[in-house]
Amino acid sequence: MSADSLRIALVGNPNCGKTALFNLLTGGRQKVANYAGVTIERKEGRFVAPSGRVLQILDLPGAYSFDAVSPDERITRDVLEGNYPGEAPPDLIVCVADATNLRLHLRFVLEVKRLGRPVVLALNMMDAARRRGITVDVPELSRRLGLPVVETIAVRRGGAQALIGQVDGDVPPAAAAQPDDPASRADLHAQVRALLAATVVMPRATDRLDDALDRWTLHPVFGLAILAVVMFLVFQAVYSIGKPMTDAIGDGFGWLGSHLAAWLPAGPLQGLVTDGLCGGLGTVLGFLPEILVLFLFILTLEESGYLPRAAFLLDRLMVSVGLTGRSFIPLLSSFACAIPGIMGTRSITDPRDRLATILVAPLMTCSARLPVYALLIGAFIPAHRVAGVFNLQGLVLFALYAAGIAGAMLVGWVMKRLRRDQGEHALLMELPSYRLPKARDVAIGLYERGMIFLKRLTGVILALTVLMWALSSFPAPPAGASGPAINYSIAGYLGHGFAHLFKPIGFNWQMSLALIPAFAARETAVAALATVYAVGGEGALGPALSSHIPLASALSLLVWFAYAPQCMSTLAVIKRETDSWRNVAISFSYMFVLAYAASFLTYQIASALA
Ligand SMILES: Nc1nc2c(ncn2[C@@H]2O[C@H](COP(=O)(O)OP(=O)(O)OP(=O)(O)O)[C@@H](O)[C@H]2O)c(=O)[nH]1
Ligand SMILES: [Mg+2]
């Protein structure tokens, strides 16, 4: 690091706009969302100040105080106190405070000041504060705190000018460090009150529009109805908006495959390109639009400020099944992927609640399962309208997501019965202001998700698809063999071997085989089925599936994917976050038993009814 480079840490209460400020300064694309606990790791970026000086900027998880209790808050405390492994304390602390919520945020500013290090206070969200008629006497606040104070608007271009001017100049002198004892902590409240009285004019404690909306969204009956409608509409939209695009992409690859087949000489290369790449990979790529539609809704909800309300509304229910309202947001993130969901539990203070959330998070339907669901639903469930408006395929998709949630509640409830400590924790959660999502932020979020999907597709999924194709094509059948060539391949042997285990739940050998690569990446089940049937001489995948797989088996496979043990990366994250192989073993085995039992019941009942 050059002698000239200054290290600056952004700290503050959760949800005050630290990451928005970080992105504005460094051009970063870290996740910004309207709830507490979005940032859970230390992130670093570079900013070249107008003077040419290079500044290293650290974005840190939000903290309510230094009595750090949750794993993410501990990171912030360690970095500031210089206890973070391999890192000296920052040269300058930029303490960010939400100007619309100074009653809460100033307390943390005072705590930071007592560290005895150079501090600048950034009063962020000044746009929202002005809209609400809040005025702050900045020079007076600065004088009383003994710190430089600047106003910022982290979501507006140029909104950090004052801060940049401040950090590009001389580092302000540090205040004297002060001891942290109970008496001085009680004193903080009195100091905050005095500061507010002298420097802030707040016409009303809360926003009128927020209050009006909250009367509906937090209402015990209407609130739940609104939540149910919102969730339901999301899944209908995934189907009605995403499906036509998926079909178009699928058709495009089908066309491409047939043209390439005519071009390429017959042989292994032709097989790889048409069956493996166009058939397998193309089918998975087709599900990108559906995944993006799902994320469009999740990102919009995250920015709107609605999620903590939903958490609040569901707290009683979640406590009764052994979880907490705090589990809501990590569980919702698991609809994207269980990995960020499990990492998001770092903001849960109680270790027991955190572990319970980690163990059930993989039961939420991650977006990697969406292609599997969409493929099977498309092949087996007719596209009827129900009651004139709802799409039956969308309803089945919704039911599968609901089955995952119901499974999580059941598992949570059982875990609650099994543990000794039955105590419950009250939910203390901040309700942020409602906010209109910014198109740019949502677009960045969608782009990031799209790239993650494409990287998986061209990485692990591509590798597995080629492997599946090779296993299904080699060795070639002996001369004079009868029956499809694939029966003589390695895949054929493996699949038939595995099929014994899955016969009671109705899987044929192709389905059993597809489960193997799905353990590395769920979407590969689609590519594997596509490849295996294509190598086996079938045409389009949808009709091939519906002619070879009975409905009962298809339903059983859907249910299997709702509960089955997760991909390897999820298990690896459980190991990392809980530092225990025991937890990995528990989650793998309980999900295996749950999936097997649920698929068995589904298959037996559906076969009996058919
Ligand atoms: N109106 C307005 N909104 C802002 C401003 N700064 C941030 N926001 C919004 O405030 C919310 C929280 O922003 P983040 O940057 O994620 O907050 P954070 O402090 O990093 O939060 P944690 O990582 O959870 O501690 C998001 O919805 C932002 O769009 C601002 O200056 N004005
Ligand atoms: Mg953040």
TrEMBL record:
Keywords: Membrane, Transmembrane, Transmembrane helix. This is Ferrous iron transport protein B. Signal peptide: none annotated. Residues 5-173 form the FeoB-type G domain. One of its GO terms (cellular component) is plasma membrane. SUPFAM superfamilies: P-loop containing nucleoside triphosphate hydrolases. Pfam families: FeoB_C, FeoB_N, Gate. Gene3D superfamilies: P-loop containing nucleotide triphosphate hydrolases.
